[in-house]
Amino acid sequence: MSLEVVNVDEYELLAKAKMSKMAFDYFARGSEDQVSLRENREAFSRIRLRPRILVDVSNIDVATSVMGFKISMPIMVAPTAHHKLAHPEGELATARAASAADTLMILSSSANCSMEEVAATGPGVRFFQLYVYKDRNITITLVRRAEQFGFKAIVLTVDTPRLGRREADIKNRFKLPSHLVYKNLEGLMNLEQMDKSSHSELASWADSHFDRSLNWKDVEWLQSITHLPVLVKGILTAEDASLALQAGVKGIIVSNHGARQLDHVPATISVLEEVVYAVRGRVPVFLDGGIRRGSDVFKALALGASGVFVGRPVPYALAVDGEAGATKVLQMLRDEFELTMALIGVRSVKEIRRQHVLTEQDSMKLALISKL
Length: 372
Ligand SMILES: Cc1cc2nc3c(=O)[nH]c(=O)nc-3n(C[C@H](O)[C@H](O)[C@H](O)COP(=O)(O)O)c2cc1C
Ligand SMILES: CC(C)CC(=O)C(=O)O
Description:
oxidoreductase, FMN_HAD, TIM Barrel, 12% strand, Aldolase_TIM, two-stranded antiparallel ribbon, peroxisome
């Protein structure tokens, strides 16, 4: 008899039991000492909620709009690579689950399914995540395909000039099984070509092909070659948020890549407010990293995010129960978010306010003021 899964985290344990150690470690781990990985979760638990009572919450609307697209909730699917390591249907199952939930999905450029295959699953609001490779023609081809297959925006990942040190992948000698490929890159580059300096095939592959010279000028270049809006993913400071605005981006994703790149960076929820403050409403600011509860979604929105993206829980749930699992993850987060709203006394996403949360900094300020 299998017990019902009642929260998102339970999928992690179930996935661990189902997957090979190499695959599970690839999905689960962060870089080096896992400091930022722990912090991505712990920082959420240090934020307190401030409920208002006796508000009529008999009708709650969790729908929102992201960059002009109406979606059922401010909870979306982050780009994570290699979904076929989790389930044979890979990103096709993910795309169907996101569409069924009527929410947005970002397809990873390192997916095992192509943009064309994902588009063929049916309608859905989808963005395409891009890495810029040494050969710029590859980037141009990917952008053209994203336009052709109905992707609505390009999400440029800016925190990965080189791959972070993921020691589990090095120990496990991570290698993509031979039947899986970087489907979007097939025919565009020699996928076998990589320096062998790391025991992780992923690190060798990324370090051989990613363009380490990528800089703000390239963000302008990228926007010059497409009519699609460009978002940058991987901003952690107010300074870079300002530069992103100067470069003309249409959206910012506060992200530390699920703590897989530079270890010891802060939790994304801890830096969200400084980015929001720097942006001052000129473009939407989103967040990913450690979202596992509806209350996490609420906290991010109260601190100024226009929406959040969920990473690891999706491939974990795929591994356990395919498309149905991914659907359930999105449904559970939606239900928890709605319940959080009801218990805090807000009826729509627009009613969520900064005053609904108390951060550690708020508490410190209050303590100082009370001593004056
Ligand atoms: C297994 C895995 C693969 C990922 N692949 C990509 C990728 O291909 N492109 C990218 O921009 N981010 C990638 N990320 C980062 C996610 O988009 C996202 O920032 C992160 O997973 C969010 O944190 P969470 O897993 O705690 O929700 C990956 C993350 C994981 C865990
Ligand atoms: C192929 C990898 C570079 C995908 C990725 O971003 C990750 O594993 O975090």
